[in-house]
Write a structure and sequence with these properties.
alpha/beta, 5 strands, 261 residues
């Protein structure tokens, strides 16, 4: 059965803003509806006879979508160590009002918000430790809790931002079941919203993009993750790195980082 439902799933700090912009532009260009779904969304969100994009920015799709023969789901993950670094910087610096969890007073933080507590910590090492057990733990649980279905396409952020990113994205669009003219439109949107393409110069980025993205490069952790934080991360989440395919051993990478330092 030819796909007519295109699911787009990401996680916090895994290219969500990028994928949202790309697929919204593509949907508008080809005249296909773009809708956000939630775990409890009913099947009637799908048009009876037309195609549709269904987005979920924590990849918490409704169960019925994952096994429909007329659906394909693109799922994007990112190296959790880069998610940690990107998340801490974003949560420390952003003024984005849509991130409600950042600004709500919390009893466990003495009435302070997540962001105000993060900013009050003495340095970025302490902030990384706090982030590691805070929002990052939730994101990592989402990524490791994902179970690929028969209709899912697994994508890595690192491949999308790499030198062959356009070629990789082209194949993902084909795997979604899109015809070639629409693949080319998708590639155009991909490049226009890429930090390596249309948004390469910071002055071309909208304020929301600037607040989300400081760098966007892959494997930042190799030069930016402090060794003691890396060792703590390996002890706590090393198995998750192995499960996600980013390492073959839970802790050896941290020791290599220490040796390099």
């Amino acid at each position: 059965m030819a796909p007519r439902i295109y699911g787009i799933g990401t996680h916090h700090k895994t290219g969500t803003l990028w994928m949202r912009a790309v697929f919204r532009q593509l949907a508008e260009a080809i005249g296909v509806a773009f809708r956000q779904v939630h775990p409890n969304s009913a099947p009637d969100v799908v048009p009876v006879a037309h195609r549709v994009f269904l987005a979920q920015w924590s990849s918490a799709f409704p169960a019925w979508l994952r096994f429909r023969p007329d659906a394909r789901v693109l799922h994007v993950v990112r190296d959790p160590r880069d998610v940690l670094l990107s998340g801490m910087r974003y949560h420390r610096d952003t003024d984005a009002t849509e991130e409600g969890f950042l600004h709500a007073p919390r009893d466990d933080l003495g009435g302070r918000s997540y962001q105000s507590h993060l900013r009050a910590l003495p340095d970025d090492a302490a902030r990384l430790r706090f982030e590691m057990t805070g929002r990052h733990a939730e994101t990592l649980a989402e990524m490791t809790g994902w179970t690929p279905g028969p209709n899912t396409i697994e994508a890595r952020y690192e491949a999308l931002v790499g030198p062959s990113g356009q070629d990789v994205f082209r194949e993902h669009l084909r795997d979604l079941g899109m015809p070639e003219p629409e693949v080319e439109r998708g590639l155009r949107a991909f490049w226009e919203h890429s930090l390596q393409g249309g948004l390469a110069r910071p002055e071309t980025r909208r304020s929301r993009v600037r607040s989300h993205v400081a760098d966007g490069a892959a494997t930042q952790w190799k030069t930016q993750l402090p060794v003691d934080i890396a060792r703590d991360y390996a002890a706590r989440y090393g198995d998750a790195l192995v499960a996600l395919g980013y390492e073959t051993h839970p802790t050896r990478w941290a020791e290599r980082l220490a040796d390099a330092a």
